[in-house]
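Task: sequence design from structure.
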């Protein structure tokens, strides 16, 4: 993600190009959209990248008005809400302000460090000498990633339940794992996958 967002030429920012393409072709004018990106990287990773600023600038360059609002009915009263809500990971468990949004883009997802997960497992099991294989740690990490994604998508329209059924929502995920879908299926019964992952 950092490499893609750090590109100076817009035609080389492949991830953002995918988001813009989806916004232009699959999101209606009256539909609220939640977009989650990483917080800015620090200088220790090389060139500092402010994901949110880069994305917002490219969206505006593509013709999207980030100040646009849409009418939303809340408790029988119609109020104006932002059409496009761009925020960073960390807010994905802190607010329900996007609950009217029916589409969400998760552009990259937080990953806990495997050393952190090893320490966590050792503490929970009360065994500081525990040895976990790298394969098992990666599987635990992917479960944590799925949990993070699940928490984020529960901030939008599908958090509302009607007649025992979650309201519809579309989630666009950017993640490089063949097993990620399986992890999500355990908590998203009935969810439909409509597009296969492609590689930029």
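Answer:
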């Amino acid at each position: 993600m950092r490499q893609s967002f750090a590109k100076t030429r817009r035609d080389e920012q492949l991830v953002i190009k995918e988001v813009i393409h989806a916004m232009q072709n699959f999101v209606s004018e009256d539909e609220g959209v939640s977009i989650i990106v990483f917080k800015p990287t620090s200088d220790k990773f090389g060139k500092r990248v402010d994901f949110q600023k880069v994305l917002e600038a490219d969206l505006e360059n593509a013709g999207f008005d980030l100040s646009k609002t849409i009418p939303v009915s809340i408790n029988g009263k119609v109020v104006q809400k932002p059409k496009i809500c761009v925020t960073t990971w960390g807010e994905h468990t802190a607010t329900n302000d996007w609950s009217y949004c029916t589409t969400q883009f998760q552009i990259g997802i937080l990953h806990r460090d495997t050393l952190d997960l090893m320490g966590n497992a050792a503490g929970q099991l009360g065994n500081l000498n525990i040895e976990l294989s790298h394969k098992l740690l990666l599987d635990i990490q992917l479960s944590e990633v799925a949990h993070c994604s699940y928490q984020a998508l529960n901030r939008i329209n599908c958090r509302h339940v009607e007649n025992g059924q979650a309201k519809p929502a579309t989630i666009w995920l950017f993640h490089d794992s063949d097993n990620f879908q399986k992890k999500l299926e355990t908590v998203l019964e009935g969810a439909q996958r409509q597009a296969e992952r492609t590689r930029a």
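The beta strands are 33-37, 69-74, 77-82, 84-88, 103-107, 161-162, 165-166, 170-174.
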